[in-house]
Amino acid sequence: MRVAILAHEKFPDRAKTALGVLRYADHDVVAVLDRDAAGRRVADFVSDVQDAPIVADTAALDPDAADALLVGIAPIGGGFDETWRDDVRTALEYGWDVVSGLHYFLGEDEEFARLAAEHGCELRDVRNPPDDLTVADGVAGAVDAEVILTVGTDCSVGKMTTTMELARAARAAGRDAAVIPTGQTGILIEGWGTPIDRVVGDFTAGAVEELITEKGDDHDYLFVEGQGSIVHPAYSPVTLGILHGSMADELVLCHEAGRETIHGYESFALPSIPTYVDLYESIAAPVAESEVVAGTINTAGLEDDAAHTAVEEYADALGAPATDVLRFGTDDVLEALG
After folding, report:
1. Rounded Cα gap, residues 159 and 226, in angstroms
2. Which end of the chain is flanked by fewer CB atoms within 10 Å, N or C?
C-alpha cells in the first residue's frame, strides 16, 4: 500500500508511530507531512528507515500519489488537532483511505464520514477495540510459546522498537517468532492486534490473554509490545493489564539514556533501575513468575563513546545484559532469552 504519513511539527522526535511505520511496516511511504520540515527528506533526520520526501500538506501531493493517509502521531490524550482537518479532508477528496491510531475516532466525525461515503474510501480507527472482549481466565501461561514482554521505565523509551527488533532478530536466527501488538503503532505495522489502552478496565488483561492464546500454540516465541510504565501516573493501569494478561515468562526492561523524570509529568522522578526490576517482578509474581532477564536503552542522543558507557552502566544497574537495539544490535539480549 502507498501511504502518506501525517506528522506535523513532531517529526522525527515525537512521531514514534511514523518512525515505526517507516522502519517496520510493509508500506511504500510516498511522503511525510510536516509543516516545519517541508522541503527536506526523512533521511536528513533518520538514516536507518525508509526514505521519503517531507511536504507541507496533503495538497502538495498528486491525488494519484497514494492510497491512504496515515496519522503518524499520537499526542498525550490521543486527541485530534484541528490543524490537521484540511489534510484529512483533502485525502478523502482524493479518494484515499485514512488510517488513524487516535482516541478521537475519525469515523464518528460527521464531515469525514460524509466525505468518505461520497468518495468511496474507508476511515479506519485502529484504536477502536472489538466489542466481544471479556475478563481474563488466567490461562495465557499455558500456551506452548515462550512469552517475552517489553516493559518500560516510562512511555516512549523504545518498547515497540525493542519488540520489533527482537522478533526480527529471532526470526533471522531461525526461531519461529510472532509479535503481539497491543498499541496503535504495532497494529499499524502488523495489521492486527488490540489497542489495550482503549479497552474497558475489567477487560484489559482478558484482551491481552486473547491475543496470546490466539498465537501461542502456533509459534515458539511471542514478543509482546508493552505500553506505558508501571509507575506512570496516567498509564500504569494499561501496563498492569498487559503484565498480568500476558503472564510473560521473561521481561525486557526498556529505558532512555539520561531520562530522569516522566515525560509530560516532569514533577515525577523515575525510580532507580533496581526498583523497576523489583516492581515488575513482584507485581507479576502472584500471576506468573516473570523475570527481567535483559534490558534495552535508547542512546540516540549520545555520541558513540558515551553510548557505550550508558549501555554498560545500564547493564550493571540492571544486573543483566543490555543493549541499544538500533545502535549495537540484539545479540546479547536475544541470547539471554529462553
Report:
1. 6
2. C
For residues 224 and 126, the answer to whether their CB atoms sit within 8 Å is: no
Q: Is 108 exposed, middle or buried (0-12, 13-18, 19+ CB in 10 A)?
A: exposed
Cis amide bond preceding 12, omega within 30 = yes
Residues in the chain: 338
Contacts of 284 (CB under 8 A, 6+ apart): 243, 244, 248, 251, 290
Bridge partners, residue 180, by sequence: 224
Residue 113: which H helix or E strand, with range?
helix 110-119
What does DSSP assign to residue 53? Answer: B
Helices (H), 247-338: 273-284, 304-318, 331-336
Distance CA 169, CA 47 (A): 20
- The secondary element (H helix, E strand) that includes residue 160 is helix 159-172
Beta bridge partners of 291: 250
Which residues are bridge partners to 298 per DSSP?
256
Strand 322-323: give its sheet, edge to edge. 177-180, 221-224, 146-152, 250-256, 291-298, 322-323
Of 264, 272, 315, 338, nearest to 74 by C-alpha is: 264
Q: What is the value of pTM for the model shown?
A: 0.93
Residue 137's Cβ-side half-sphere holds a number of Cα atoms within 13 Å equal to: 9
Q: How many CB atoms lie within 10 A of CB 132?
A: 7
Dihedral (Cα; 225, 15, 330, 149), 10-degree rounding? -10
* pLDDT tens profile 192-217: 999 999 999 999 999 999 999 999 99
Distance, in Å, from the CA atom of 105 to the CA atom of 128, rounded to the nearest integer, reads 8
Residues 14-42: pLDDT tens digits?
898 999 999 999 999 999 999 999 999 99
- The pLDDT value given to residue 118: 98
